[in-house]
Design a protein that fits this description.
Elements (H helix, E strand, L loop, with lengths): L5 E5 L4 E5 L1 E2 L7 E2 L4 H5 L19 E4 L4 E4 L2 E2 H7 L2 H10 L5 H12 L9 H5 L7 H11 L13 H26 L13 H10 L10 H14 L6 H10 L5 H12 L7 H12 L5 H9 L20 H17 L4 H15 L2 H5 L7 H10 L7 H21 L28
Antiparallel strand pairs: 1-2, 3-4, 5-6, 6-7
Bound molecules: acetyl coenzyme *A.
Amino acid sequence: MADNPYKLVNEQEGLSETLGVVSGTQGPHAVDVRKLYRDTGVLTYDPGFMSTASCESRITYIDGEAGILEYRGYPIEQLAEQSTYLEVAYLLLYGDLPNRTQLQKFEQLIVYHTMLNETLKNFYDGFHHDAHPMAIMVGVVGSLSAFYHDSLDINDPKHREISAHRLFAKMPTIAAASYKHNISEPIIYPRNELSYCANFLHMMFSTPCEPYEVNPIAEKAINLLFILHADHEQNASTSTVRLAGSSQANPFACIAAGIASLWGPAHGGANEAVLDMLTEIGDVSHIDKYIAKAKDKKDKFRLMGFGHRVYKNFDPRAGILREVCKEVLEKLADNDSPLFELALRLEEIALNDDYFIQRKLYPNVDFYSGIIYRALGIPNNMFTVMFAIGRTIGWVAHWMEMMNDPEQKIGRPRQIYKGSPRREYIPIDKR
Ligand code: ACO
C-alpha cells in the first residue's frame, strides 16, 4: 500500500478533507486524523482502539496475521533461544543488544537496586494476611514514589533512568515479599551473587531456617518466561502506563496503574484463569461440554488462554511455551502432566473446530505459562504477578520512550455523548 493521502468525503455536508498518512518501518499505514476535529468538527469513533495507533514506537513489532513478534527488530524465537532476560531488558530499554562490558555494568547496576527501603517492609503488615499478591503489588509499587524523592524529577533524564532501574530491579523483591506475606513467612532479602531470575526464586522459596539451592531448570524456565513476557507493544497495561504517564505522573504511579490493568482476566489475569479452567474441566471426557459452552453466546464462559486482539494466527510465544512446558514437566518429574495432557487435547479440539477456525482463535501466551509456573511450585495466585515482573521492563521502556517523544501530549480521548439533552433542574419536592 502506497502512503498516498486519503480523502474523507461527505457530499451532503459539503465535507472534503485530505488526510495524510503516517508510516512505520513495517506494518500497516495509519491515516493521520490529528487535525480532523479542528478542521472539520468531526471525531473518529473507535472504542477498544480496534483501528487506532495511539503513538509511534521503536520497541516492539507484531504482525498478528503472520504470528510475528520482534523486540527492537530481533525475532522472539532467536531471543528465547539465545538470550538472557537481562540482555533482553537492556535491549528493550536502550535499543541495542549490549556488548559484554555494557551487560556486566547493567547487571551490576540492577543487582545493587534489588533491596527495598527497610521501612517499605512495614507496608506489607498493613495488608490482610490472605490478600491477593496482585492487590499488594498495586499498593506497594504505587507507594515507591513516597520513598525515592531523589529521582522523581521526570524532566531530568538521569532521574528517569534511575527510576527505571529501581522499578526493574525491585519488582522481583516486591513480588516475592507479596507472596511471603500471603503465606505468613518472613520476607527474604535478595542475594547479590545470584542472577535476576535465580534471585527471585531464592526470595520466593528460601526461608531463614535452612539453605536453599536454586534449581537451574527452574531458573532457565523463568528466564525464558520473562523474555516472552517482556513486551508486547500497546497492550492494555502498557497503554495504561502511557496514559497515566501522559499527565506527567511519576513512573512508580504509572507502573502501579499498569499492574492494575494487567490483573484483569481478559489480560494478564488469564494465566490464573486458564489453570482454574483446566482444573474445572478435570478430564479429557469433559472437553466437548466446555467447548460447547465457549461457543454458546448465551453462556459467559470463554476458553481462557485462547484468542488475542492482535494475533489472528498462532501466538509465537504459545508455541515456544508448549515445548518448554513439555521439557519442564519431564525434568521436574512433577505430577501435573495430566493438566498438560488436558491442555494439549483442548488445544487440538479447539483448533479443529469451525467456531475457533472462523474467528481465528489460537492459544495465546497464557495458555501454557500457568502449567509451567505450577510445575515450578509457583501458586496460582502468583501467576499474574509473574507476568507483571516480566512485563515491568516493557512498561518502563515505553514510559522512557514516551517521555523522550517530542510529540507526546496528554492522552485525552473524546466521546460520543448519548445521555440526556439539556434539562432544567427540578427541586426535590417536585420530582
Ligand atoms: N473463547 C470463546 N470465544 C471467543 C474467545 C474465547 N477465548 N475469544 C474470542 N471469542 C469470540 C468472541 O465471542 C467473538 O465472537 P463473535 O464474533 O461471534 O461475537 C469473537 O471471538 C471475537 O472476540 P472479541 O471479544 O471481539 O475479541 P477481542 O479482540 O475484543 O478480545 C480477548 C480478545 C480479550 C483476548 C478474547 O479473545 C478473550 O477474552 N480471550 C480469553 C481471555 C484470554 O485468554 N486473555 C489473554 C489475552 S493475551 C494477554 O493478555 C497476555
